[in-house]
């Protein structure tokens, strides 16, 4: 099985004065504003790190859901957030961390098994594999 998905971006003007728009091929995002002010000054719009955080959280959550199902569990929920850190380093910026925080509620499961499956999902979800940064995971299990 193979899928190919697309996104696009435009940027009018240069540097800090420029303004951009980002879209996804599916149309889920359509011409959402982005630029220096949305990345570093909390202006309305999105930014690449926010999009990576959403991608990582959604990929990990789906991977964990599949791990739970493969382990024989049939009912539950998983909620995950991701915080992607962008830091200025020599000569530019680098994404240095993606901090996942997940909470699960799965009928018939214990915390140790949840943590085991969450660690496996963290290591093996496609977006985790894509990122070359420190990826941390905090779990909360609600029995």
Automatic annotation (TrEMBL):
InterPro entries: KH_dom-like_a/b, OsmC/Ohr_fam, OsmC/Ohrsf, OsmC_Ohr_Peroxiredoxin, Peroxiredoxin_OsmC. Residues 1-22 are annotated as: Disordered. GO terms for molecular function: peroxidase activity. NCBIfam families: osmo_induc_OsmC (TIGR03562). One of its GO terms (biological process) is response to oxidative stress. This is OsmC family peroxiredoxin. Pfam families: OsmC.
């Amino acid at each position: 099985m193979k899928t190919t998905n697309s996104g696009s971006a435009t940027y009018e003007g240069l540097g800090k004065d420029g303004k951009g728009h980002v879209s996804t091929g599916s149309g889920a995002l359509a011409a959402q504003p982005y630029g220096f002010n949305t990345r570093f000054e909390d202006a309305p719009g999105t930014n690449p790190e926010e999009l990576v955080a959403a991608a990582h959280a959604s990929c990990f959550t789906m991977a964990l859901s599949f791990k739970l199902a493969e382990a024989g569990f049939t009912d539950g929920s998983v909620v995950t957030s991701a915080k992607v850190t962008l830091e200025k380093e020599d000569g530019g910026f680098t994404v240095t961390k993606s901090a996942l925080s997940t909470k699960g509620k799965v009928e018939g499961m214990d915390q140790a098994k949840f943590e085991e499956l969450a660690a496996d999902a963290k290591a093996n979800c496609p977006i985790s594999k894509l990122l070359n940064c420190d990826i941390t995971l905090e779990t909360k299990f609600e029995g």
